[in-house]
Amino acid sequence: MSIPAHGPGPRWFGHVGQPALALVLAVFLLPPGLQSVRVGGISTAWVVGLAIALVVLHICVATARRWPSQSFVIGTLACATLAAGPDIDGVTDFVEASEYSPILLPSTLCFFALLYSVSAHTRPPLPNYALGLGLAGCCVTLARLWGFTGTPIATWAWWLFLGTTAFGGTIAAWALGRYRFTRALWATQKAERLAADERRHIAREMHDVVAHSVAVMVSHAEAGRLVVVNSPERAPEIFTTIADAGREALTEMRGLLAVLRDDAAATEPQPGLAELPALIDRMRAAGVDIEFSSDDQLHTTPAVALTIYRIIQEALTNITRHAGEKPSARVAVDSGPDGIEVHVTNTGVVQTDPRPGRGLIGMQERVDAVGGTLKAGPTATGWTVEVTVPR
Fold first, then answer.
1. How large is the angle between the packed helices 155-163 and 126-144, nearest 10 degrees?
2. Is 230 exposed, middle or buried (0-12, 13-18, 19+ CB in 10 A)?
3. Mind listing the pLDDT tens digit for each residue in 56-70?
């Protein structure tokens, strides 16, 4: 799974924010550093080298969002240049102090921004290498400043402050970057899961609507070829049933497509328990001898009612497709101790393929979505589907 370079997730420093951050840091940190180098009493070559290193550090902050790894490497080299430079004079326009290493110049704080970017926008192991390099740089910095005595506080307090700032800032910048990366990864995975769930939902609805209606139409069309020859008066009945099944499929598909388009127009309500008798009548007309029983006092949520309807619809559709000639079935919807119990059993040809088909997978997903249980499998005389769903 890939995360786009500028993909989903929190954008603490976005496309405009990163250059803005670099500009703010440059305005406040760069002038004092350049001034200190200019009057630091070092050779011209070192003045030019240290000035370039300071400017490069701030440029790297501006490019760290787009090229995090390259900016981090170049920025680290700039920090190494500051650490390697000679001590500069503590005399400035404002204060006179002892000489100090250029690594103490305020622009060095840009390293934390670079470490954050490489940790937030690159994949392992690069962030781990960056952390290791940053901690090694902390050790080099402490070694470089070992003899520095130009502070008005106690020596132990100075080293505690410096060590806490160096190591604590490095670890904090790395940890914040990894947190941002993890959140972005989580957001991407969540979006992909939601998209996959929606695709499965659409596939279930399309399968149930199309498979059921087409099975009814095919059954009546095949029967019509035989019946109409001997009983022409039944032709209108057969064609009416085929047309009704087609219209029902079109209505449900329009409703589904309206949802996909986020159409503001009202759609037909989803079928539920009240529509079960009509479903049974259609399947009986398709040639399935069905014994149906239902508790008229059952009441449940629309989602559970739709699940029950689709389960029975799919089970009866499978009977017309797999149970051979003159199949019979029994459908029972009753109240049980654990919720609403649905039983669909049939006699006919026993399906021997152990692999679950798309319809059975769809039934399992529907039942799981409402927190129910499903058992389906062959019996000695046919097939059975048992479902328990909460009220």
1. 160
2. exposed
3. 999 999 999 999 999
